[in-house]
Specification:
Elements lengths: L20 H20 L5 E6 L4 E4 L1 H7 L3 H4 L11 H15 L7 H9 L4 E8 L5 E12 L5 E10 L1 H50 L7 H32 L7 E4 H18 L3 E4 L7 E4 L1 H17 L6 E9 L5 E8 L6 H5 L21 H11 L3 E7 L3 E9 L28 E6 L3 H11 L5 E6 L2 H11 L3 E4 L8 H10 L8 E5 L4 H10 L3 E4 L4 H17 L11
Parallel strand pairs: 7-9, 13-14, 13-15, 15-16, 16-17
Antiparallel strand pairs: 1-2, 1-5, 3-4, 4-5, 6-8, 9-10, 10-12, 11-12
Helix pairs in contact: 4-5, 6-7, 6-12, 8-9, 9-11, 13-14
GO molecular function: histidine phosphotransfer kinase activity; phosphorelay sensor kinase activity
Organism: Hydrogenophaga taeniospiralis CCUG 15921
Keywords: Kinase, Phosphoprotein, Transferase
């Protein structure tokens, strides 16, 4: 049945039940008129209608409220674009011209172009009010056509966008502040790492020299030196862990998943913590494993986790107490080993256990004698989870606590029998008649310079030349033509990277391999140095064998590189 023919018995124009056809039509018209008036008189939306030329024909109450003009001031007088930011209108015209490869005149034509082609356009713009103030708005523009499809005008409906823009600005400012704080944290960590590595370089460097010096240390001295080196290298590992904290937080920390011997790791941890336990009168009990066990983990990170738990068990124990380390296989989940660290301290109440892994929460120990930051267990937990393990704790007030870590078991590596590798073999002396080659070391720290001087003194084929700043080092390189240059990065005046650029730009020194030797150990600093053109990038503290290998590689390159014809031996 056609829609315009009423159903039998139905009123010609629908109204309320019981109404006559005429009264229903009248009520419907009144209702439609009321809706129309409510829309046009809405104070929350600006409604502007124009003719086909873009001249304003309708300016509702909302437009008056938002823009400050009375309707009689704009109707038949201006175009909507006259109340917009002219720079935005010109930018829109230029964008359309590029998009369509057609000249578009700025003004209302630029705003109405898409709408005139049947495309409703919604865009952001800035309205300029009668009093000169402005506010951001969201405006939709639609073409109006008559029953024959001819264009008769445009309808613009706008809303004030100030609140959303303000929220966006606040969000952007918060993001910028967070990024700035993150950069500041990274810079601080990098600077702190550098400051810690500089004295540690002297500690570990001279300890290595004493360990391998002549006459050989006595057994007692050797044990003491061994403890210094173990503690020093572990401190270096902790410094590296600090550098990795930002990566842990961002989920970008790179961890290896290799078979790690629990016997070896626990022995190394015991050697590290026993001196502190003895000082506090704490007994240490490490249960022997019935058979070799290997877990899939990152060796350095697993060692950090266990030492942190052991140090806490010692630190928060009672004098004369005990720390017991046990390893046991678990049934759920299978193929898993649980490493437990049990102490005889005061224990924790359930409320404290629930807060164990909260950052900066020291469980009421802030005023105690033991120092701490409250982040150690947080980092430990994240490292364990990153290695695919689980960590937890149980405690009985007055009796002590047990902290445990569960790791997945794995097969032993093929070279397991080679785990206890011998020390690096001594390097043979140079053959008689070998020409003395020159190593230039540019370093402003006297202790570092003296350390390298003593290291190089053990080689009969090298002579060391020192320079306290980059400018002097560049002059020495030009005059003495060393085979290899060791370059610090943080130098007074000219940095090591700037000095490298100068050396590379000079034909007299461009052929000399330059090795960076720096306490800047952040990965981005190392990458920056290698991209700048350093032959190699070594970090402090110095590992003597690593330094020797790097020098040998650079010397081999120097032998195959032709330098200037005239060279002068160092004085």
């Amino acid at each position: 049945m056609p829609e315009n023919i009423p159903r039998p018995g139905a009123p010609a124009f629908p109204g309320k039940p019981g109404e006559t056809t005429e009264s229903g039509r009248r009520n419907a018209l009144l209702k439609a008129g009321a809706l129309q008036n409510a829309i046009l008189n809405s104070a929350n939306f600006s409604i502007i209608a124009t003719d086909e030329k873009g001249i304003i024909q309708l300016f509702n109450v909302g437009a008056e409220r938002m823009l400050g003009y009375r309707a009689d001031e704009v109707v038949n007088r201006v175009r909507p674009s006259d109340m917009h930011d002219p720079q935005e209108v010109r930018a829109r015209a230029m964008a359309l011209s590029l998009e369509l490869d057609t000249p578009i005149a700025p003004g209302f034509e630029a705003l109405a172009f898409k709408a005139s082609r049947g495309i409703e356009d919604i865009y952001e713009l800035t309205y300029i009010c009668k009093d000169g103030s402005w506010f951001p708005a969201i405006v939709s523009i639609t073409a109006l056509r008559d029953d024959y499809g001819d264009l008769i005008g445009y309808l613009l409906i706008g809303t004030d966008n100030s609140v959303r823009k303000r929220v966006e600005q606040q969000l952007n400012e918060a993001v910028d502040a967070a990024e700035k704080a993150n950069r500041a944290k990274t810079d601080f960590i990098s600077s702190m790492s550098h400051e810690l590595r500089t004295p540690l370089n002297a500690i570990l460097g001279f300890a290595q020299l004493v360990e391998s010096g002549t006459p050989a240390p006595t057994p007692t001295q050797q044990r003491s030196i061994g403890q210094i080196l173990k503690a020093g290298w572990y401190l270096l590992e902790l410094i590296n862990e600090i550098l990795d904290l930002t990566l842990i937080e961002s989920g970008k920390l790179s961890l290896s998943g290799e078979p790690v011997s629990l016997t070896e790791v626990l022995a190394e941890c015991r050697a590290m913590v026993e001196p502190q336990a003895q000082q506090r009168g704490i007994g240490m009990v490490f249960a022997r494993l019935e058979s070799p066990r290997y877990v899939k983990a990152d060796r350095t990170r697993l060692k950090q986790v266990l030492i942190n738990l052991l140090f806490n068990a010692i630190k928060y124990n009672q004098r004369g107490g005990h720390v017991t380390v046990e390893c046991a296989l678990t049934l759920d989940p299978p193929d898993t080993v649980r490493i437990s660290v049990r102490d005889t301290g005061p224990g924790l109440v359930p409320e404290q256990l629930a807060q164990l892994f909260q950052p900066f929460n020291r469980l009421g120990q802030e005023s105690g004698a033991e120092e701490g930051t409250g982040i150690g267990l947080v980092v430990t937990q994240r490292l364990v989870h990153l290695m695919g393990g689980q960590i937890g704790a149980s405690s009985t007030p007055g009796l002590g606590s047990v902290f445990w870590v569960e790791m997945a078991l794995t097969a032993a590596p093929l070279n397991a029998v080679l785990d206890a590798a011998p020390a690096d073999p001594p390097r043979p002396d140079a053959l008689p008649g070998t020409p003395l080659r020159t190593l230039l070391y540019v370093e402003d720290n006297p202790a570092n310079l003296e350390l390298v001087e003593q290291i190089i003194a053990r080689r009969t084929d090298l002579g060391l030349l020192g320079a306290a700043d980059a400018s002097l080092g560049i002059e020495f390189a030009r005059v003495y033509q060393p085979e290899v240059i060791l370059m610090d990065i943080n130098l007074p005046g000219i940095s090591g990277i700037e000095a490298l650029k100068i050396l590379r730009a000079d034909p007299a020194t461009a052929h000399i391999p330059v090795i960076a030797l720096s306490a800047n150990a952040v990965p981005r600093d190392i990458q920056k140095g290698l991209e700048a053109g350093f032959f190699n990038y070594l970090t402090k503290p110095i590992k003597v064998a690593q330094l020797m290998d790097a020098l040998d590689a650079a010397l081999r390159v120097a032998e195959t590189t032709s330098g200037p014809a005239t060279q002068q031996e160092p004085a």
